[in-house]
Amino acid sequence: MRQGLMRLDDTLFEHTRPSQPSLAAIGLIGALCMLAYFPVWKYALPQPYESLWLRVAGCIVLLPLAMQRWWPRRLRSLLPAYWHAAVTFVLPFFAGYMLLRNDGSTPWLLIHLASMYLTMMMFDVVAFGAIFAVGSLLAWLAWVLGPHDPMPLERLQLYLPLLAMALALGPLASLSQKHADKTRIQALTRASNNIAHELRTPLGALHIAGQAFRRYLPDLLVSHRLAKDAGLPVAELRDAHLEALERGMDTIEHEVAHAHTVIDMLLMAARPLDRQQLGPLRVRALLQEAITRFPYAARIEQERVHLLAGEDFAMLGSEPLLTHVVFNLLRNALHHTGRAGKGDIVLSVEREGPWGRIRVRDTGPGIPPDVLPRIFNRFYTYSEDRGGVAGLGIGLAFCREAVERMDGTIGCRSRWGEYTEFLISFPARDAGARA
User: Fold this and answer.
1) How many helices (H) and strands (E) does the chain have?
2) What does each of the 435 residues of the chain score in pLDDT, given as a tens digit?
3) What's the distance, CA 278 to chain centroid?
4) Domain residue spans in the chain?
């Protein structure tokens, strides 16, 4: 039940995301139109039925969308569900009910058709079908249970072929748009893969140059010292210069390693995960190696990461996949604790019955409650800093897909301003599994 509700919430969020930048404008304009058209259909172009109270109700429903910026954080996670309910009320329900109450008059036939197309423009085929069906059913029930004239069958019979054609052709536009979006994503993925692979060559050259620099620099320094002792005119090298050279070599090697790691993570996220071969792993040894290999930006970052003692376990998994899952979680934790200027990062391994668990906990700024349910959605990004640069929104989505590929689960709990903890669970194997 809980997983079903979470999937429903994710689905509602994905349906809402394309319209979210315009929700405030839609809510404000829709609320104004609800009230503005009352005198039109009541007095200027009078229709058989008009309801001020129903229009006021529609206005009340739409205004919270216009004010979504001021919603309390604890309520913002409800915005997708509210958006679907509001559209259901003001488009298929309101237009359908008014169509029936006005005996299928020509203006309301056109309004009903327009409301259907508006709904198609804002949602995909599945969401449109659900909203249109629920709204139309509620409109019919309200008409049946309330005061009404006989069903305007003659007018509706003339309208039904047009409605059927619109229902048949309208979703094709949505399907074409989804296909175009999928094609663009595939093209961007191929381009990013090509760029990542092309970067390997200059990075490899820098790595080789850095190794040569580190190998031959001591000989050059000895030669410099001998030349100076022999009274030859050579430039003076102070201790500060030697330290700068040493730091330069370290910087080259570190940045090359960091770039390679980022490229590996991007390529890993872009490849089909079902191609990864699974084998027996020892988890604690893998975590220790991942912590050691991770390209920290500074020593202070490495000092913030700790691996606690705990009951080790074996699992069936992919070493590259699980390593990059840990890398993604470490990178996020280091970024947010660094931004907050506080916090430690603790990794732990534990065994609980048939399950082995990995915990990654940081005492950084935490995750806002309205953001927490969305963090595993692909392409969802969030930056607490106004004007801040958010990520690509693929890291945690990759983590979930990778963990599920290894028959595991990943979840997150957080208290805003206090901590964030990721819990990864895998079916544990017997102790004879090898790394």
Assistant:
1) 14, 7
2) 666 666 666 677 776 766 777 888 999 999 999 999 999 999 999 999 999 999 999 999 999 999 988 888 778 878 888 999 999 999 999 999 999 999 888 899 889 988 888 888 888 778 888 899 999 999 999 999 988 888 777 777 778 887 777 777 666 655 555 555 566 556 656 666 666 666 666 766 666 777 777 777 777 777 877 887 788 877 776 667 667 776 677 667 766 766 666 666 666 655 656 666 788 889 999 999 889 888 787 788 888 899 987 888 999 988 888 988 998 899 889 988 887 777 889 999 998 888 999 999 998 888 888 788 888 877 677 665 544 444 556 778 888 888 988 999 999 999 888 889 999 999 988 644 444
3) 27
4) 2-151, 192-270, 277-427
Residue 42 has, within 13 A of its CA and on its CB side, a CA count of: 11
* Angle, vertex CA 234, rays to CA 228 and CA 239, nearest 5: 75
Kindly state the tokens that stand for 99. Answer: 């169509």
CATH of 277-427 among 3.30.565.10, 3.40.50.800, 3.40.50.300, 3.50.50.60: 3.30.565.10
Q: 276's torsion region: left (phi>0), alpha (psi -120 to 50) or beta? A: beta
Pairing mode, strands 305-307 and 314-317: unpaired
- Pairwise CA distance, residues 70 & 64, whole Å: 9
Give strand pairing partners of 413: 421
Q: Measured between alpha carbons, how far is residue 74 from residues 173, 381, 415 in Å?
A: 36, 18, 12
Q: What value, to the nearest 5°, has the Cα angle with vertex 13 and ends 12 and 14? A: 95
Q: Look up residue 214 and give its two tokens.
A: 């580190």
Q: How far apart are CA 405 and CA 359, in angstroms?
A: 19
Q: Token pair of 232, please?
A: 């030859």
Burial class (CB in 10 A: 0-12, 13-18, 19+), 428: buried
